[in-house]
Amino acid sequence: MHPESPLIPRDVPFVSTVFRTIQTPIPVPACIPLLKGLASCEPRSMGGQPPIIWDRAKDFSIWDAHGNRWIDFSSGVLVTNAGHAAEEIVRSLKDQIDHGLLHSYCFPNQARIDLVRKLRSLVPPPLEKVFLLTTGAESTECALKLARTYGRRVDGDRKIVMVSFQNAFHGRTLGAQLMGGIPALKEWIGHRDPGFVQVPFPDGWRNTDTDFSAFEESLAEQGISAETVCGVITETYQGGMACFTPKSYMQALRKWCDTHNALLILDEVQAGFGRTGTFWGFEHYEIVPDMICLGKGITSSLPLSAVIGRKDVMDLYGPGEMTSTHSANPLACRAALGSIERIEKENLVRQAAALGEILHDTLNAMQERHAKVIGAVMGKGLVAGVMFTRAGTKDPGPGVASAVVQRCVEKGVMLFAPVGPGGGTIKINPPLCISEEALREGLEVFEEALTEVEGNRD
Ligand SMILES: Cc1ncc(COP(=O)(O)O)c(C=O)c1O
Asked: Measuring from atom 5 of ligand 1, which residue has the nearest CA?
């Protein structure tokens, strides 16, 4: 659980650079009644982020209504790959509004036609059919349902087990939480469903056994026969630590799924659309999954998600049997087309790879200077997970991580609250259009914040 921010304004040093302005106490005193009013109307679960009321945002900058401006290191939550309010997205949305179609249920509309064609042109075979939905969790739930139906077609009631990984996150709806591997999320809902099994995630740091044999051993220990597995789902990189699976493990998993006629599903909700320095995250493994789940950076803005999969899998249901009211909303489709247009036009994938080198080199050097509190740095391209740990251990250090986030926000660098095992990971993931200068400035601020927090602990 994220700690609730104390709604007490702090007199912080003012900041004025080309990219950052802080000219009020933080949180802004005038915002306190608004934040309290919000908390009184919403469940507590909606709290937990730094208490800043976002007013507007453009590319990699965020402003409040009080003259403060931040460099965005959050991309919302890895959404705004093409940048906040990118010109291409705004133009595309305005054109659609002026054109005069805001909804068409499952009746075809031109924006849906354009988007599914575009998405299909971006994926390798055998990925072929595109189904549009609204949220990331909806896309992983849909993949789960398709895998279960596929298993039943192959082998009746026997082949219904979905295998996933410990500490995985696939969303917060019921099926997505059952499939996920975060202990708290499973305990809340009761988790003794024999259709869902988790195996250790080979992160190579806390779990140093990265050989694929561990996958098979874990299934055997849990009494799962390979023939009962309908699908295996994994995040392309595990979001809680920005941690990739070793390539050899993933390639062995691809073979295992082929041998046992189980579907390999990659949850690309965070990893897609250039984030990791390749257009799709799975390209790093040199494999092609049977289905991918997409969300977040698909539009860089409006809610839209997708499942793209093999034709035989995606066509398992008949007409009208796999739909959603807001599937392929024309505005959301136009936002996606605008976002992809900017990513392609400005080659933001190559930019993510190039700036990613700077991000990771800088953070790795920082880790050496702050080895007492940073246990590891993970990720690729423009996503990094900085793992805060208690000195001399690999135990998560959530206190230091939260304090560093708070300091960064007070200094004009926007981060969301720490995530990952024990709440010890700070994720750094700016929009892919960030400039090198802003990236370097933000990282200097990050180290400044870290040094101050470390100093306060001694
Ligand atoms: C890997 C992954 N899958 C699924 C989801 C769920 O997406 P949504 O919050 O849009 O339902 C998330 C969200 O953080 C995610 O990171």
From this structure: 171
